[in-house]
């Protein structure tokens, strides 16, 4: 079990735990956007109330150690860039992530995930970092390949992505090991 750093940075991003006080910007820039949620397991938020529930959960999971989410912020402008989250097992870490859509295709998630993988492997107990993505989520699959992950196969009927179907869909499983 690891307890990761609360704050870290890359050349263009700073990362810190999400806070309830971020609700307005998170709702407006990110959580209400159907482009962002298309391949996620949740539907676009309809009100700041939905976003507050999400942010309270972020604070709770940091306390109980079931997951460690970070909000990502652009150093240059202070804009919200997105989120990345790790769920820690005894020897492996599962990672999830999403960016504000106007910050897509600038290499930001490749940059953030590279730092997250380094942070995970700096813990001697962690040997595997892995992620899944819907088989149609080309952007996500490309990011995982760019950070050095290897496609292990297809997890059939893995997860419901409610913005696409109410039935579980196939997903790719990617990992990097040491
Ligand atoms: C997936 C996501 C995080 C990618 O982040 P990003 O910062 O835009 O990705 P990067 O800029 O680091 O791009 C990495 C590679 O993917 C490619 N790529 C990015 N978006 C793409 C798209 N829509 N179609 C095809 N390729 C794409 C980039 O061109 C780049 O490859 P290249 O360097 O060879 O050109 C972003 O699209 C996103 O937030 N999507 C919505 C949420 C989501 O699906 N999260 C993942 C759930 S598993």
What attributes does this structure have?
alpha+beta, Aminopeptidase, 30% helix, binds coenzyme A
Report what the structure shows:
- The chain is α+β, with helices and mostly antiparallel strands and about 180 residues long.
- The protein has a domain at about 10-125: Aminopeptidase, CATH 3.40.630.30.
- About 30% of the residues lie in helices and about 35% in strands.
- It is built from five helices and eight strands; from the N terminus they run E-E-H-H-H-E-E-E-H-E-H-E-E.
- The protein has helices at about 25-30, 35, 50-65, 110-120, 140-145; strands at about 10, 15, 70-75, 80-90, 90-100, 130-135, 150-160, 170-175.
- An eight-stranded mixed beta sheet has the order 1-2-3-4-5-6-8-7, with helices on both faces.
- Helix 1 crosses helix 3.
- The mean pLDDT is about 95.
- Coenzyme A (COA) binds near residues 99, 107, 138, 139 and 143.
